[in-house]
Amino acid sequence: MLIPEAGNLSLIVYNTLGQQVRVLEQGPVDADFHRVSWDGQDAFGRSVSSGIYLVRMQSGLFNSVKKMMLLK
Mean pLDDT over all residues of the chain? Predict the structure, then answer.
């Protein structure tokens, strides 16, 4: 993923009901390409089911929501 500007990054996975599943990244980052992977577990370490999830990325004025599919 490309972070367009340096700042505090927030990268959070949500289910289709809008419930927060897991915080993947939170804190200061530089503007650059970054790689983040998700192991398919929630914040408590439990495996989540296959399906559609939303990833919300915020950094400064940048805000993006992408849809992803988790297949097991």
Answer: 91
Separation between Cα atoms, residue 62 and residue 26, nearest integer Å:
14
Residues 62, 4: contact at Cβ < 8 Å? yes
Report how far residue 28's alpha carbon sits from residue 32's, in angstroms, rounded to the nearest whole number: 12
How many structural domains does the chain have?
1
Range of the domain at 29: 2-70
Q: What is the pLDDT of residues 38-61, one digit of tens each?
A: 999 999 999 999 999 999 998 878
pTM comes to 0.86
Which CATH number do you get for residue 12? 2.60.40.4070
